[in-house]
Specification:
By secondary structure, the protein is an alpha/beta fold. It has one domain: NAD(P)-binding Rossmann-like Domain (Rossmann fold, 3-Layer(aba) Sandwich), CATH 3.40.50. The chain is built from nine helices and seven strands, in the order βαβαβαβαβααβαααβ. Strands 3-2-1-4-5-6-7 form a seven-stranded parallel beta sheet, with helices on both faces. α1 runs parallel beside α2, α3 runs parallel beside α4 and α4 runs parallel beside α6. The structure holds NADP nicotinamide-adenine-dinucleotide phosphate (NAP). The site of NADP nicotinamide-adenine-dinucleotide phosphate has 29 residues, from α1, β2 and α7.
């Protein structure tokens, strides 16, 4: 796959979908900044895997919901590499409860981690990328942001917000040569979905036309396409990676 830029920051790249995105992009020749919040050891392992496969990577730990830390992280990258060409806002959490039992702090913890953080990243990336009149950002939302899900009012609001916000960034940045797109994964086998009971997993699987959970590498492939030169005329788009769920 062809990439005109040289480096990428992947948030939440120590595990799951983020680590597959990081490894995939390194395989296409990008220098990858592997972000994590608490899993320093896991992030170092991702870096080591990339380097042993012949790629280039650095680890950069910060909490994406901490605005100052995110700004500082991007500053470090630009001071080191002279640019930030690509950003993948992947880090995310769940804090599931039925709405009647959900306190505002439960709601806001997910909004801050999944939505406000993506706003910070998109804004700071735009400041840097517009100087070179080039950049591409992919935000990882969720099918739940399109359909809603019982027990996830906070998560659905955060991911629906990411979908709408990405389109607004795309409109504001198109004339600066910067593209913003969203991926909405369906159910992907990671630690996040491993928390679900076998019964709930079976219930979701029954609703997936392809009859299985997705693999993190399948989200990584779609992410690489949307970042790359191969999608150069696509911006503000939402790409579903969900095995055929929610085709409307
Ligand atoms: P995961 O296995 O739980 O991994 C989450 C990653 O995000 C970890 O690397 C974690 O780092 C990092 N992270 C969480 N909060 C962070 C923060 N505040 N600052 C920096 N890093 C943070 O999750 P996943 O399943 O790979 O999900 C990745 C993304 O895809 C999320 O945005 C999720 O909402 C979305 N998604 C997942 C699915 C699915 O079925 N798995 C479906 C749709 C969308 P630490 O380990 O260091 O905390």
């Amino acid at each position: 796959m062809k990439f005109s830029g040289k480096n990428v920051l992947v948030t939440g790249a120590s595990r799951g979908i983020g680590s597959e995105i990081a490894k995939g992009l390194a395989g296409f020749g990008l220098k990858v900044w592997v972000n994590y919040r608490s899993g320093a050891e896991a992030a170092e392992k991702v870096k080591a895997e990339i380097i042993s496969a012949g790629g280039e990577a650095e680890v950069i730990g910060f909490d994406v919901s901490d605005e100052a830390a995110f700004i500082e992280g991007i500053k470090t990258i630009v001071e080191t590499d002279g640019e930030l060409a690509y950003l993948v806002n992947n880090a995310g959490i769940t804090n599931d409860k039925l709405a009647l039992r959900m306190k505002n702090e439960d709601f806001m913890s997910v909004i801050n981690a999944n939505l406000t953080s993506v706003f910070t990243g998109c804004r700071e990336a735009m400041k840097v990328m517009r100087k070179k009149k080039f950049g591409s950002v992919v935000n990882i939302a969720s099918i739940v942001g399109e359909t809603g899900n019982a027990g996830q009012t906070n998560y659905a609001a955060s991911k629906g917000g990411v979908i709408a916000m990405t389109k607004s960034f795309a409109l504001e940045a198109a004339s600066s040569g910067i593209r913003y797109n969203t991926i909405t994964p369906g159910f992907i086998a990671t630690d996040m979905t491993d928390e679900l009971s076998d019964e709930i997993k079976a219930g979701f699987t029954a609703k997936i036309p392809m009859g299985r959970f997705g693999d993190a590498s399948e989200v990584a492939d779609a992410t690489a396409f949307l970042l790359s030169d191969h999608s150069s005329y696509i911006t503000g788009e939402t790409l579903k990676v969900n095995g055929g769920m929610n085709m409307a």
